[in-house]
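From the pipeline queue, job 12 of 40. The input is one protein chain; the requested action is below.

Action: predict structure.
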Amino acid sequence: MDVYLRSIDRRWRNELHDDMVKVQAFSPYLTSRTADSVLGGVGEGVCEIYTLFETDVFASGASSLPTLVKLMEQGHQLFHLPDLHAKIILAPGEFASIGSQNLTSRGTRNKEATVAFQDPANLKELEKNIQPWLLERVPITPKMIADMEELLPPIRRLYLAAQAAARHADSEILRRREQRDDEHSQRLQLYKEKVRRLGLVVTAVKRAPKSPQVCYGTVKLMESEKYSWESRTYSFSKTNSLVVGREDDLTLWWLDGKRIDLVPRKRYLCVHQNGRKLGWARVGKTRITYIGKGVRRTEPIWMAGQRYVLSFNADWSHQSAYGRNATVKISHLSGNPVCVVSIWFSIDDVLLLHAEAAEGGTLPDTTKSAMVNWVRENPTDFRRTVLPHFVSPFLYEERLNGVQATDFFGPLGSRYKLGLLQADGNAVITVESV
């Protein structure tokens, strides 16, 4: 027994010859070039060809009516065999093949599998087993072919339209699959990049000068009262705060043997969960209550040969644009926005991710584009200018500006370890859940 995982048409041509007594060919589909070359060497009246004579077979082009006409003219007998799917070539007592390949041109190019054998016992068994099929055969006549030729054209046009729609659908399905694969790949790359950036923060924290002190705090609901001398009444308020023990002091730290005093209620950069979240925390002796999401620096800075002001905003979203954890807005001294830069802040460095022209304002687009280009072309100067202003402490004009502790740290009852390090000579609070 021989196994073919390619076209077997050459073996068919070699085995089928004009002195054979009988040949039976079972092929649901027939087209001229292959059917002619395989069966052309068989003598007239010897070959019985079993196929499908159904409208959709010819409308789709799987079989060819001219092929049937030509085979009839060569003296072969043609039969319609309902539900035929097997592909068999049988020369009783001499040769047989069973497989997937039709007597079609496409069958010579497809991924096909066929077995061929000449063992007399197997040949006899095959001939016996196909006899019940032949009871259902219907002779194909010239009149049937003429009827099919008459009725087929409009059906063929409909089929071609459906075929074109099907190809379009296949193409669209493939496009969508590739798009999903690309999106998955992009998500994977973003995840890997995020892990890498988080690693930069972890490494920077290890590398930065830091206090050996640690404080442990819990997010609590705090109630306070205040007496008004004008109205001679008490008022009560509730706030969510991150509260440390009474023995701790968030405004007093030691680093390298030197005392570092934080100014109460001044805002210090707070890095939460290895750089995933940034904010500017209002620090009290035993608590942090308000955390600002953004800050607008009032002092002018030099950038690209001109004076501008900077605004920083932390990005707390889970799917942040460009994988950023903050943005830097560059504005003209008049207040008109110029450029917005997406960054990844990693304690001792600023990774530039994306720069684009800011929306709004009255400045011409050329001015905004010039700044965007400068930022992209001078990332080192941009980092050197931005970093000191990003980490330096400040006072909000409104002292209660920002969100409360539950919005930044976590729900009531959450516990955290707080530490202090220096970035560009400025104190930065670090917070890690425990």
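Job complete. The mean pLDDT is 91.
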